[in-house]
Specification:
Number of strands: 7
Shape: globular
Number of helices: 5
Strand order of the largest sheet: 1-4-5-6-7
Structural class: alpha+beta
Number of domains: 1
Radius of gyration: 18 Å
Largest sheet: 5 strands, antiparallel
Strand content: 15-25%
Helix content: 25-40%
Order of helices and strands: HEHEEHHHEEEE
Length: 218
């Protein structure tokens, strides 16, 4: 007969296994290596698609792209130029980039969220694709001096298998606010291609299920 203590230990073990957070650790380079994606360099990124970075397509930003991105971000900065202003500007910049890249490489019709029919479809992107791509785009924006109050942190994932499919592993890109060290999830998987990503505090991100991911006001 199993003792009450043993039952408690088993229950706690199940919770540990069932609900996990893979905090970003190591280097950004390690994330790209894990998914066999070349790191962004200067104005070149390799865009993941077809789920799990199964396909990687080279994309080169032009001077005209950076001019447009500068204008997009300037529109959403106030005179105070706060970190919140910058996050709002980043959200619009990522939406702009997704539209630009999607039209160029064929992912413009990427559907929101998880689509079981999307695996292997070069027009679709899962959360690994989205998190990796957004991380690349953020690094490019930093290299152009368009992000000044945040750094790009290592992507991380959460899961809660006790919830079944709705608790599957989910990845996000991450920004870290320089002044406060607060980390922010930048999650473009929630929405269709070209829509602004949700930018929320990492501790508020994916705490329930994939159907209840927090939306952003940006």
């Amino acid at each position: 007969m199993i003792s009450r203590l043993a039952k408690t230990v088993v229950a706690l073990a199940a919770l540990v296994v069932g609900g996990c957070t893979h905090e970003g650790f190591g280097s950004l380079e390690g994330h790209f290596t894990t998914f066999s994606v070349p790191e962004p360099k200067d104005n070149v990124v390799y865009v993941c698609h077809a789920y799990g970075c199964r396909e990687r397509t080279k994309f080169r930003f032009t001077d005209a792209d950076f001019k447009d991105l500068t204008a997009v971000m300037a529109k959403w900065r106030t005179k105070a130029d706060t970190a919140e202003d910058e996050r709002r500007a980043i959200a619009y910049a990522i939406g702009w980039i997704e539209t630009r890249v999607g039209n160029a490489i064929g992912t413009k019709d990427d559907r929101a969220g998880m689509d079981f029919a999307g695996s292997g479809d070069a027009t679709q992107q899962d959360c690994v694709d989205e998190a990796t791509n957004t991380t690349s785009y953020l690094r490019v924006l930093v290299s152009q001096g368009l992000i000044r109050q945040h750094t790009v942190a290592v992507p991380f994932a959460k899961e809660n298998y006790l919830r079944g499919v709705s608790g599957w592993t989910h990845w996000t890109a991450v920004l870290q606010e320089t002044a406060s060290a607060q980390k922010w999830a930048v999650d473009s998987w929630i929405y269709a291609n070209g829509e602004n990503p949700a930018i929320v505090k990492t501790e508020d991100w994916y705490i329930a299920s994939l159907e209840e991911l927090p939306k952003s006001k940006h």
